[in-house]
Specification:
With 370 residues, the chain is mainly alpha-helical. It has helices spanning 17-27, 32-39, 43-50, 58-68, 72-109, 112-117, 125-135, 141-147, 166-180, 193-206, 211-221, 258-276, 293-306, 309-315, 323-333, 337-348, and strands at 225-228, 237-244, 246-251, 284-287. Residues 1-9, 157-161 and 357-370 have low confidence and may be disordered.
């Protein structure tokens, strides 16, 4: 059973000793005038003590002891407790005001609906500040604000074309890093690249209901952290890859079709083996618009690993509108039919292709993973 630290408890307001005195004389049916007379003090002094305008000193405490029979030490302790509580209440108020000012700044940067959805924001103001600082890996407000000014985010500006709101992106990426820091996986060995892609390809082909759990389990066994964090509003981000003691991948599942999921996953894995193993201080954010050379390189490798060039040359002329043709090729090469259709749609810019069936282009995500 947890114990309560009494010293840390702060009352809503300090109780001055005059309140105890008032209770005592009322219980004795004694007037302030009578008490003043017996204490040999002006009535105004007694009134000021009761109202908390005058402190109880040693002389007054001894007079009260003589008249009421209550030890002088009680009154002196009551006065001391009042002074301590009063100071603590003042400090608590100052802290409250300061925290409100800090939170006001934080709110202007973060996306509240996103952090509420993730269970980060509670009803405790101080706790909210502390957890946000942890999420952004900073110790103060200056560090927090600085996160939004970092160079890697400067190129992101919201536009009708990109549908990227920079602050939403910064919140998502930093929260992903925070979550990743809590994951522990096996040691990473970059020489196991082929085994990784082969194992994931087999999982994608089968497309079982627990596909996300299987992907996470396999990647973890090869020393790669994998997590899913849905994106905030106004943030058309598909994924991110970076180094968090181990190579790390996070997907937003913005598009839940199996071909989109597969390509995004392979894109981020490509970043690991092409770029992060050579510079683990970088991070790669997967967005709709891809102008950087490294993003294009990851796209190219992902395409080749999902469907090898020699395989694509043999099958690209088939009728992708014909179910039996696509299913036959899919079975022969062990490639999910939706991935084949996705490649065809991208290369021909034909996205009106008829879906083979309702499940082919859907990732069977369980409810807990959505």
């Amino acid at each position: 059973m947890a114990t309560i630290n009494i010293k840390k408890l702060v009352p809503k307001q300090a109780t001055y000793p005059g309140e105890h005195l008032l209770d005592e004389i009322q219980a004795r049916e004694m007037s302030q005038k009578d008490l003043a007379m017996e204490m040999d003090l002006p009535k105004s002094v007694v009134n000021e003590i009761i109202k908390g305008k005058k402190n109880i000193n040693t002389d007054i405490a001894l007079r009260l002891e003589k008249v009421l029979g209550i030890p002088a030490k009680f009154w002196l302790n009551a006065q001391a407790d009042y002074e301590i509580d009063k100071r603590r209440v003042e400090e608590k108020h100052q802290e409250f005001v300061k925290n409100n000012e800090i939170w006001s700044v934080i709110k202007s940067y973060i996306r509240m609906p996103f952090f509420k959805r993730e269970g980060v924001i509670t009803d405790d103001l101080k706790q909210n500040i502390n957890i946000i600082f942890k999420v952004f890996a900073v110790s103060d407000l200056d560090g927090f604000v600085g996160r939004f000014a970092e160079l890697e985010y400067q190129r992101f500006r919201k536009s009708e074309k990109s549908n990227i709101e920079r602050n939403s992106l910064v919140c998502w990426v930093n929260y992903v890093k925070y979550k990743a820091s809590q994951l522990y996986v096996s040691d990473f060995n970059q020489s196991e690249k082929e085994q990784v892609f082969k194992a994931i390809s087999e999982i994608l082909y089968k497309n079982k209901e627990n596909i996300l759990d299987e992907v996470k389990e396999v990647l973890s066994s090869y020393g790669i952290k994998f997590l899913i964090v849905p994106k905030p509003k106004d943030c058309a981000v598909d994924g991110v890859s970076f180094w968090s003691e181990n190579p790390t991948i996070c997907l937003s599942l913005r598009n839940k079709s199996i071909d989109s999921f597969a390509f995004t996953l392979f894109h981020e894995l490509s970043h690991i083996y092409l770029h992060l193993v050579n510079n683990n201080r970088k991070e790669y954010i997967n967005l709709e618009e891809k102008h950087q050379k490294e993003e294009q390189e990851a796209d190219e490798l992902a395409s080749k690993l999902l469907i090898p060039d020699d395989v694509w040359k043999k099958i690209k002329s088939i009728n992708f509108h014909n179910e039996s043709s696509v299913m036959s090729v899919s079975k022969h090469y062990g490639i999910h039919p939706a991935i084949l259709q996705g490649r065809y749609s991208k290369e021909t810019n034909n996205y009106k292709i008829k879906k083979i069936d309702k499940d082919i282009r859907q990732v069977s995500f369980t409810e807990k993973n959505q």
